[in-house]
Fold these 2 entries.
Entry 1:
Amino acid sequence: MSEISGFLGELGPIECTTDERSLRVKSRDWFSVSPMLRTMLEGKRADAIVTPHDKTELLHVIATAAKHRLPLTLRGGGTANYGQSVPLRGGVLLDMTAMAGVLWTRPGEIRAQAGTIVADMEAAARDIGWEMRMVPTTKLTATIGGFVAGGTGGIGSAAWGVLRDRGNITAVEVISMEEVPRIIELRGRDARLVHHAYGTNGIISEIEMPLVPMWDWIETIVAFPDYMQTVKFGVKLGNEHGIVKKLLSIQEWPTPRLIQPLGDIVPDGHSMISSIVSNLSMRDFEELVEEHGGKLVSACREGQGAYAVPMNEFAFGHALRQVQKSDPRRTSVEGFFQSDDLVGLVDRVHRKVDGMGPMRMELRRWGGALVGSGSPYVVFEDDAQMARLVELMQSEGVSVANPHTSSVRSVGKKELTDRDVGFKREMDPYGLLNPGRFEADSTEDETFSSTLPTDSWMFRQAS
Ligand SMILES: Cc1cc2nc3c(=O)[nH]c(=O)nc-3n(C[C@H](O)[C@H](O)[C@H](O)COP(=O)(O)OP(=O)(O)OC[C@H]3O[C@@H](n4cnc5c(N)ncnc54)[C@H](O)[C@@H]3O)c2cc1C
């Protein structure tokens, strides 16, 4: 009897399937946004999908998989864009979506099961007059477990920074991958151990997040005839602490035409910045627009835009998805722009990559500073072209993370210290969690045939 049949035989009444179609569909996430990942992850799939409905069932699944030494890969909403929820070595796909529900809310805090949809947490927080500090643009389908284990930040990061910034994850309950699983609670800096680890160092079962007082939000689009004028406005707005905002996302012309739901809201030849601003800040915001020579082409209450999709969809990974609907050949890398002269840095890179494609630039806080992240949307040719793009950006001092790979180290957005390696060994002594994505011994990490000369977004935080 194979290990997987032995495992299935000991599951009892817990929901599971080995249906071919389900295995194919659920062993994928949104990695298809990357032409390089499409090739690398082709055909990778789990042998069984198991869906526990409560913690007793979850513990039984973990213990049984550990006993049979089966690989176990976690899946929430499956919206990850580095392919990090695709099982590289088969085994069990642990579907967390039935482990859902807000456990409690109180002023400033919320706790939920890991499979809870982020938008449901946002709604629960709003019921008591508070809101999440940040949500991914995929909040309607992403789970909080997947966001913390696989995401970075999102709407709200323009004010509050990213998940790895101190205070943005309050606590996590994590379970070890052992025959007798241990349940531990990590708070403060320890909670960051599981952030961006892709479920390789523990199964997250509950998460506690900080909340902020709720605002009435206005979605705005401002157009400028020149890209660098848009960047100057964005950086100024980002640094105006008196103007309350949660999103600053810049798209160079002709991207406003490649994003179909925008129609012709943005005039021909104009770049745009989409921002979400408190209704109480609108007067100051409009003054700033005027001072910078911008044109406010759209302003409406959150979710009520004339563009038929939430404004989320014009920012971060969603903007690339929209662009790909018009031109499926387009892709990008993730440059990290940090400088005391942020406008100057963006200007130098913009000149250097001139002609490769329109730039996108998300402005947000990271470790307290206003930083940019983005790159041109290039028409993908081959790996060599992508490597050249990375080198051009690096030559001006930009760090570039790699969205076209799938392991913790090679993506390069997580700071890995000896504590991380020790914690991985402790929580996953048999190396069964999402194997190939982050092994305690770096030489064992799965290296894909195609690698870009990227570096890491390493920004140290005092421990
Ligand atoms: C169009 C698009 C837009 C995006 N926008 C953003 C954005 O604005 N901000 C952002 O940060 N990210 C963004 N992402 C990526 C982001 O990772 C996901 O949107 C989301 O946060 C992941 O949640 P999920 O439930 O879908 O996780 P999944 O895709 O299911 O999983 C993500 C990772 O976490 C692991 N995991 C899942 N659940 C658990 C658990 N309970 N315990 C341990 N590990 C677990 C998985 O194995 C996987 O490695 C975007 C992706 C796309 C395709």
Note: The pocket of flavin-adenine dinucleotide is lined by residues 29-30, 33, 73-81, 84-85, 96, 114, 136-138, 142-143, 145-147, 149-154, 198-199, 203-204, 316-318, 321, 434 (CB under 6 Å).
Entry 2:
Amino acid sequence: MPMRWAIVGSGQMADGIAAAIDRTPDAELTVIVGRTMDSAARLATHRGGRPADDLVAALGKDVDAVYVGSPNAFHHEHARRALLAGKHVLVDKPAATTLPDARDLVATADAVGLVLAVNLQGRHHPGLGIAREWIADQVIGRPVVFRASLAFGPEALEGWRADPSLAGAAALYNLGVHAIDMVLAIADEPAMQVLALTSPAGEPLDRTSILLVRLRSGAVATILASQELDSDEVVLEVVGTRARLAWSGWMAPYRRGRISVSTAEGPTRTVDVECPDAYERVVADVMEAARTGRPPAASGAALLETVAVTEAARDSARLARAIDVHRS
Ligand SMILES: NC(=O)c1ccc[n+]([C@@H]2O[C@H](COP(=O)([O-])OP(=O)(O)OC[C@H]3O[C@@H](n4cnc5c(N)ncnc54)[C@H](OP(=O)(O)O)[C@@H]3O)[C@@H](O)[C@H]2O)c1
């Protein structure tokens, strides 16, 4: 029996997940829930499934799992409703725009015993396992500094992304969440403190955010997310006591990248890594988690951690001081 999916949202990301469902064995798209019947029908004509405009009514017996790809401010409500309707949930990032909402989602998923996964596709990149293995093998010595940058050129804020009450933040949520999650996934340890500067200063819709994050081991991460740089920046680096690990092209839409380790004398090892099917991996992971009961790759823990760090970053930028990361 295939896993039958509903998609909430009818925009760019909904289309991407619909295409991934189409390419995933044993997955079937049964319903698209749009803001309006028209926008749902537009995507359904293209990708299949029946159109709907009422989430609760749409989540019938022919739906096993729900992808939530609505504007950020609705993620918590839509994911919560889907869980309470008895469906597994893949929610896009940011999974929630407040820490209490994030905690509520995780608690709701635990209470109903269903899968709650976040669409943090970097978690599924084959390069992540390689980077983690090399670091665990002490190839670079003790990690001291993590650096992650994500920028895909200048991007105008339009539609819901230009409305602070729907978006919550701009570069921090659109790109920064991925960079934060990848640093935490590679470091395999939690964040303790955040100091953030955003530009324009004092505005919720940041075009550029720079975070300094102290990790539990004492290592420090610098994270840049920008929607106004002229050039792409897709950088992940871990600088250790003996060598530096650098990973280029770690994030979709880049499909190919390279992980290398170098010392002051030059490169010591290099591997090319590919991830042409990030969203198929995300969909397949949710299905496997539902089938086996194992946690998804980007689980409630990653959800809570990314929301805790982004919340600390927003507070830090607003208050112009370092903020401890709280999870409860
Ligand atoms: N994981 C990733 O790499 C990744 C990449 C891109 C986006 N995302 C996430 O995916 C989510 C959707 O982004 P997107 O790029 O797909 O956005 P999008 O193309 O602008 O689509 C937004 C969707 O939300 C609906 N919508 C717009 N304004 C609304 C409102 N006021 N009330 C209710 N619905 C409204 C739109 O409906 P209409 O068509 O009827 O206006 C459309 O279905 C965001 O949370 C974003 O952070 C994740």
Note: Residues 9-14, 34-36, 39, 69-72, 92-93, 119, 121, 159-160, 166, 174 surround NAP (CB under 6 Å).
